[in-house]
Amino acid sequence: MDIVEFFQQSAGKWSSMRTSHHLAFKQQEAGKSNIQIELLDKTDPAVIQLCEQHNVDPATASCGARVTWDGTMDWDKEKHDGSTVLVPIADPENPQEGKLLREMGYAEKAPVAGSYHINDSNELTLVTEYESMYSKERLWFESPNVRLRHSILKRFGGFSMASFCSEIRLGVAQAAEQQATEQAAEQPSDAAANA
Fold this sequence. Notes:
CATH architecture: Beta Barrel
CATH class: Mainly Beta
Number of domains: 1
Number of strands: 10
Order of helices and strands: HEEHEEEEEEEEHH
């Protein structure tokens, strides 16, 4: 599986249950959210804009995705919502790894670039270094409709957090629905095929 296939498999609507452990405070919290992942073509204006922000040639983009989330965490009961654009730039020598551009970082709310790697078990690992912290996230599919995510966040100086999410697919993204409809329309019906 390459990065484009991983993004394609991730497209859709997901229900996410999250447990986070704040190791320094010996506390844990739970949260839940709805996530929508929409595939973007490499020629999409949002993909081009993000590449230009990072001084990367848009022609080298593999694809793009817009991730939108809306959820709550137990400790504050406030809504946590937002969206970001992700653009992977594959290494020309090895398409299983490369850079991942983000419109908004996971730990700091500013554009950031990290790295990605997909291993032989089709697990995607994302590593991002911020000004004051470091994050590592691993994502994999237990089945086409079940995605699991594990992440650690370390502040330079010792504070760290570990999180685990289980995500269940609720539906497919609009682009995926349209593609499936188009593919179905292109295939001849059984009656026509047997005529």
